[in-house]
Write a structure and sequence with these properties.
Elements (H helix, E strand, L loop, with lengths): L10 H17 L8 H28 L9 H10 L2 H30 L4 H21 L1 H15 L9 E5 L6 H8 L5 E4 L6 E9 L2 E7 L13 H11 L4 E6 L9 H14 L3 E6 L7 H11 L4 E2 L8 H12 L3
Parallel strand pairs: 1-4, 1-5, 5-6, 6-7
Antiparallel strand pairs: 2-3, 3-4
Length: about 325
């Protein structure tokens, strides 16, 4: 479930909208055969009702946004990084307070208008209601602006499915994106994290009537921890909630520009950071000899999978290993 906050109108625009709607609807109110004072009371009360209705309807839509604690852990982490959960809760609390205050004022001023003794008094009470309502909205204008910005950020969140997820990691230029394209059935969708310039690529494939989600994370899982900034480290924490298995791509030909030792260091960090199965995959097999591959497997100390993502060779064996990881024991 992707978190969403409905579009929020600026404070002054909402006030203007409510007042214009009230003027229009009260002008259409036809009252005949009653004293002038009663007609005035009815029209002024109508304006109070309409202003309260328009504002409460708009603010209540905002309050119907999904509760943060009900979101998947991945999105909770993203919300906290990009927006701030405590600040978001505080702003929602301010909106709720405003709704209750306006409801209370509406009841109070409708009664005062109904019992007013003169037309002047009826109009005065309606104007008082307008003034106090506008003041309440301006009191929470900072929170409204914050929620407007939060709404924009939430719309930029990557759309991920709550299904078995494979995260691809590895140094730059080892062939991660090529591997993603090799195992997914359609062109991967590019999404951006809302709090960094980093992108993620999402792809999907189906085997035996089950869908699998594949996530490539350029710029996030491709270098040692000490070289990552705090925001990127938090982004990696968010990814921890997504990964059911990780495919770590090596380029032992070193044509990627990084040594095997550098790649192994990142592999070990990822393996210790993510408490899920990490499948080591040697890519670019089409330009490697078997001795180099065997030597690297001995060095890494565990079974490795070999493929050429570019030629789509050996890819199916890796998919089968993923499926085995996804199957209950």
């Amino acid at each position: 479930m992707l978190p969403r906050i409905p579009e929020i109108t600026r404070t002054n625009d909402l006030i203007d909208l409510a007042f214009r709607r009230a003027a229009k609807e009260s002008s259409l109110l036809t009252i005949r055969g009653v004293p002038r004072l009663i007609r005035t009371r009815k029209k002024e009360e109508k304006k109070v009702k309409v202003v309260a209705r328009v504002i409460k309807k708009h603010l209540n839509k905002v309050l119907k946004a999904p509760r943060i604690e009900e979101l998947p852990s991945f999105y909770q982490e993203l919300v906290d990084i990009a927006i701030g959960i405590e600040k978001l809760k505080k702003s929602f609390g301010a909106v709720k307070w405003a709704v209750k205050k306006i409801e209370s004022l509406e009841k109070h001023y409708k009664y005062k208008i109904r019992t007013s003794q003169t037309e002047v008094d009826a109009s005065k009470y309606r104007r008082e209601f307008y003034g106090r309502t506008a003041s309440i909205l301006r009191d929470i204008s900072e929170e409204i602006d914050f929620l407007r910005d939060a709404s924009r950020k939430l719309r930029s969140f990557p759309v991920v499915k709550d299904i078995f997820t494979i995260v691809i990691a590895g140094m730059p230029n080892v062939g991660k994106s090529t591997f993603l394209k090799a195992i997914t059935t359609s062109k991967p969708k590019i999404e951006s994290y809302p709090f960094t310039t980093k992108r993620i690529l999402l792809g999907y494939f189906k085997r035996r009537y089950r869908e699998y989600q594949v996530v490539d994370t350029p710029g996030l899982l491709d270098r040692p921890l000490e070289k990552r900034n705090p925001i990127e480290k938090q982004a990696i924490l968010a990814l921890k909630h997504l990964a059911n298995v990780i495919i770590f791509i090596f380029d032992i030909s070193e044509t990627c520009g990084f040594t095997r030792e550098e790649q192994l260091k990142v592999f070990k960090e990822i393996s210790s950071l993510f408490k899920v199965k990490v499948i080591p995959v040697v890519n670019k097999a089409d330009i490697l000899d078997k001795e180099k591959i065997k030597e690297f497997e001995e060095k890494i100390g565990e079974k490795i999978f070999v493929c050429s993502a570019l030629k789509k060779e050996g890819v199916e064996n890796i998919i089968e290993e993923v499926i085995r990881s996804a199957s209950p024991v």
